[in-house]
Amino acid sequence: MTASIKLGFVPTRRSVFSAPDAIKYRNLTADRLRELGIDFVDIDDINDEGLLFSDDHVAPIAEKFQKAKVDGIILAHCNFGTEYLCARLAKRLGLPVLLWGPLDERPLPNGVRLRDTQCGLFATGKVLRRFKVPFTYLTNCRLSDPIFERGIRDFMAVCNVVRVCRNVRILQMGPRPFDFWTTMCNEGELLEKYNIQLSPVPLSEVSSEVRRVLAAHEANEELALLRERTNILMPEDKVETVAALAKAMKNLIAKYGCQAGAIQCWTALQDEIGILPCAANSILNDMGIPIVCETDIHGAFTALMAEAAVMNSSRSFFADWTVRHPDNPNGELLQHCGPWPMSIAKDKPDLTCPIAFKDPGALSAEAKPADKLTLLRFDGDNGEYSLLLGNARSVEGPKILGTYMWVEVENIKRLEYKIVTGPYIHHCVGVYGDVVPVIYEACKYLGIRPDLYDPIEDQVQAYLYGE
Q1: How would you classify the pairing of strands 362-366 and 403-408?
Q2: Distance of CA 384 to the CA centre of its chain
Q3: Which domains does the chain have, with CATH numbers?
């Protein structure tokens, strides 16, 4: 289901410019937001004008928005605006801020200018910086300009990323596999820096819940899904265990109030229940509950960020950067044992044994092709964190076991260098579409340094400011 975002609409004016024209543009902007189907909370009950222009307005606006649980605010400068009041309100709320104002019309024949909106935007930008309030700027434009709608919708996606990533709880199912030193994480730093909370449970609790689900026959829905949407190439009793594991993980996610999970997928789990968890992960991934492999906490956070950026309208996939393409000089294999969502498979996946393991429980399928992908990886070490980010497209390549996609990037050597020199590892998350500008902008609010693996920062910023 696509995410729903609610915005706080804050039209503002300054007394030395035309109040009637500010009211006019306040109403025109509200009408345009309704026309676009934007869910917003107005301040038309705060005063007769429905505008922010006095310090007396700040507290009741903040109280109203907090009660309505808005996800971000639009500081709409309907004339010059009152920059310090905008900053006081934004600081108080601590939400993403969109700074915008409608383009001024031609001055009157006598030389009078009615609004001076652009000048006010310059002032508010400076004062927001003084207050250390991060903000998103939408260029001074007309309400009918396509960039207005694009900017509003992109800002809503930014708000969704911020809302999701500021309140993360991840179910950690077992410690990292012994051999995977790459997926170690600092639980204390993640909590202190980003409010990423972990809910650690031992694998014995997971396997105990699997056995309970099996005995109670509670995984009928998951079992039916596997039979309908996969080619089953493994023993029937193991198929039931895959379904039970999916149900068990879903139950534990709910029990501990989590939004995503990371599981120690080998080798202790196979001793406990005799399967790989890949296909069970796939089921939850298709439900919009990211479950990643090898207890990769940073990977689970990355998946939540990716899905929030596309407004939860499509599913992400957790992958290894694996090997270079045998023919394409900038090609690379994105692959994993078999946890990708079934919904992104090009053809009906096989439910079978993965490469390098004798136990069953993984999917094998090539992913659907894509002209544009966003690939990302949140990671850190030595107290510093960043987000590797960029685009790719799918290309043809040899058949591979597991879930996979061959991709092409602009410069594989440059990307390879960034991954090797860190702080990144061989894991990434992919999502269909180009949400690089949205994630880049969301990093501003989350305190994460965006690290573009192609030199496209100027293009990303140009997109954000309206080119």
Answers
A1: parallel
A2: 20
A3: 7-165 (3.40.50.10940), 168-465 (3.40.275.10)
